[in-house]
Amino acid sequence: MRDLNYQLKLLCKHSHEGSFETRVGRERQLSAIANQLHDLGFRQLKTTSLKQKHVQTLVDHWLKQDLSPGTIKNRMSCLRWWAEKVSKRAVVASSNDYYGIPDRQFVAEQSKAKDLAEEQLALVKDEHVRMSLRLQQAFGLRREEALKIQPRWADRRDHLQLKASWTKGGRERTVPIRTSDQRALLEEAKQLAGLGSLIPGGRQYIEQLRIYERHTANAGLSKMHGLRHAYAQQRYRELTGWPSPHAGGPSKAKLSDAQKRRDHEARLTISKELGHVREQITAVYLGR
Q1: Is 112 inside any structural domain?
Q2: Is the pTM higher than 0.85?
Q3: Mind listing the UniProt keywords for this protein, alphabetically (predicted)?
Q4: What's 224's DSSP letter?
């Protein structure tokens, strides 16, 4: 292993920022960046060797590859993290505009919402995985959140309280408990998990993640992030009174001024419930 790859691996290992999947993704991205720097002619680098010319060369290379703005911006986030850890924050410009990176396009062309039918769920043989899937569907949880959640601790009567250690980006949040079906499901989850999480005793998160992946694949299930999309669209209808554009509803251009205000308020609420900080991201789930 080259020095740079090894040193970046150590940086990642000693950092506990973000969720498990965030940390794994960051380490993978930085390893790929180290390999790209080597292929671009920068040899025998160390983590403290990072300079503006390295960043600019990488960005130019990515732009020539016609990568999506989102992909490039994710890589820039990793570069900024690296620069901060070696006290060279100024090496990477604070704005992506400086490098000519285009804006991310948030509006998806079509809905990615997924439903989870009872017959599909019955094909999942692990009861903890089944419960995690049901919680993803009912509360719009991410996969990691639905595995790590401690139902008894999270239950605050009228809402779920999600710990920072369960969530992407380490941001605590709450999700409302709105219906009797949600309440009944949560009681089932509490009974199954006892005082712990939906990771059975004796297993680590990564082990349960692999079990989740295997059982969902064996059941013919994929892209279960779509359950969050379905949750967002359901919440939009509840909050506005009409379906979202991705669910066949009117686009923003066709709304009255009063409806536009309600649309904006609903999107802010949904963004918060999903654990995002920007209203714009709701266009991915709901359309625009």
Answers
A1: no
A2: no
A3: DNA recombination
A4: T
pLDDT digits (tens, 9 = 90+) for 76-108: 999 999 999 999 999 999 988 889 888 776 666
Task: Please report the beta strands in the chain, taking only residues with DSSP state E, as ranges in sequence order.
Answer: 159-162, 173-176
263 and 197 in one domain? no
For residue 140, count CB atoms less than 10 angstroms from its CB and return exposed for 0-12, middle for 13-18, buried for 19 or more. Answer: buried
Considering the domain architecture, whether residues 84 and 140 belong to the same structural domain is answered as no
Quick one: 277 and 190 in the same domain?
no
How far, in Å, CA of 74 to CA of 103, rounded? Answer: 12
The string of pLDDT tens digits covering residues 45-68 is 999 999 999 999 999 999 988 888
Distance CA 52, CA 79 (A): 11
- Count other Cβ atoms within 10 Å, centred on residue 286: 28
CA distances from 236 to 115, 265, 266, 268 (A): 16, 10, 6, 10
Question: Domains in the chain: how many in total?
Answer: 3
Is residue 41 in a domain? Answer: yes
Range of the domain at 148: 124-220
**Residue (of 122, 136, 151, 104) closest to 283 by Cα position:** 104
